[in-house]
Amino acid sequence: MFRSKLKTIFLSISITILAASLISYPQESFDASIRGLNMWWEIVFPSLLPFFIVSEMLIGFGVVKFIGVLLEPLMRPLFKVPGVGGFVWAMGMASGFPAGAKFTARLRQEGHLTQIEAERLVSFTNSSNPLFIFGAVSVGFFYNAHLGVILALAHYLGNICVGIFMRFYGNESPEKRIEERKKFKIRSAISTLHQTRLKDNRPIGKLLGDAVNSSIQTLLMVGGFIILFSVINKLLYHLHITATLAKTVEVLLSSISFPEMLSIPFISGLFEITLGSQLTSQVQDATLLQKAMITSFILAFSGFSVQAQVASILAQTDIRFKPFFIARIFHGMFASLFALLLWKPVYLGFHSKEQPSNALPVGFFEEGSWANHFYHKMIETGPIITIFSLLVYVVILFYRLKKS
């Protein structure tokens, strides 16, 4: 009882301080809100919406179950999750935060995952997409496309390590599905596809409308969190809370011979990955390797902003948030370690006079490349796509309310 009252007092004081800070720093709060809004409607919304809609359609048509039967021999021994986890893993890497959490929650609601399996799956299927790592961080902040190879490899290899580590989490569920005992058979996968489609007998129009409705509702929530944490991060800086927390981090950084100037970018990155990565790239006293390790940790930890988005999505199910949070800490450590281990063989290999035959191509992400052009084109057309999609959402919502 005392603990509950203490929590209530703490939350009340925190929100009161936040409200007073908004009044004390109106211009800074407004600028931070605009920054968060621009990030959402230029990049996040138009890049995630197609993935969300298509994924909802794939689940409804039974394609995800089809993929699940095919990938069962891979996902079950490696990560102790059903084959449908392979779909979530792939979509999470392609589309970025918080897609893995949304798809995991959706499959849990559909009964394709047990609670423990869902908690394992969500821990390693949330990641930054390659376009953000290469386009925004490597080229946009560091002006170095080759650095993106290190950041991407460290990020995704770290996620795989987290998945293998989390396979030992939790006790096996007594639930045993028939499909788990089946061997790899294409006929079985096709049969599962057909049965799932028959079970979900919604017309295509209804299925598409539900997919658009669910996806935009999720993205509206994501946008709110992005704007909120952009403001919180700015206020923490002006209230000198970031600097105070950085003093603690300075001791840790000094013990591993990292410059103390990285402490503020590190703390900022714990709240919001974009600002943290940008500030890290601007530190002059640190070597590029040190900045790559700090950025790798920030990307892997994913920031309290993304974690709040994930917590909100998981709250709709019985999936607990604590395993996800612990996994983010391990992901950060794994990613930083991989950045260190791969620095000499991978990054320095690109800058050697004789390019190694196994060098990874990064020309697609350099200045003037089609991928870099696509990234900047998205910033230009993103707001138009966002506004049009919101209008479609309003029309669908109005039609359904009128019909009911």
TrEMBL record:
It holds the Pfam family Gate. InterPro entries: Gate_dom, Spore_IM_YlbJ. This is Sporulation integral membrane protein YlbJ. Keywords: Membrane, Transmembrane, Transmembrane helix. It comes from the Bacteria. The keyword Membrane applies. The chain crosses the membrane at residues 48-71, 83-101, 121-143, 150-169, 216-237, 249-271, 291-313, 325-343, 382-401.
